[in-house]
Please model this.
Amino acid sequence: MAEICKLLYEGGEAANSYLFAKEETGAALLIEGCASVLSVKKALKETGCELKAICLTHGHYDHILSLPELISAFSCPVYIAKEDAPCLQAGNPANVAWLFGRQFAGCEANYLPETGELSLDGISLKIHFVPGHTAGGVLYETDDFLFTGDTLLPGSCGRSDLPTGDETALRLSLKKIGALLRKKDPETILCTGHGPVVSAKTELARNMFLK
Ligand SMILES: [Zn+2]
Model:
């Protein structure tokens, strides 16, 4: 049955967020914490689904900036890899809010399970740990979509020179993503942290980091 994915882009400092929903169960996840409460409410209404959790690909400010408001509006759990959890502490330089001249208020979150799967009521995601852009970077896989955060960007990849970044680890993670993409349907949609969505086929043909 149909997997639904809606890109929520607010402009300004915010990265892309995605509402991922399963039509048959009525469950939805918000990938990233940078959409406005209003646009998440609108997307939930359009899909007729209920938000079960917010899943972060990593802890950079542009991906988490609306988290405090989202948590108070939806009272749902937030998930982040253990290695990036310090980013959610107020004033922790690892979230690079300083890069934007901002401060992050801080919030609570759960660690993503290390089993490689997050399974909630009516919806699940496969988790791939892809360090390099940050130490706790993850990619989420579903049947039809891959949520890459900033590890893989359209035609490119994220930077590795920020706190906990590691160029060698990033290159290795991108090669693993390349191997994953070659196994997926060529029409699988890559939902990246910035820029337009793109097919696996297109990205494999042009992105040298995936070779
Ligand atoms: Zn980032």
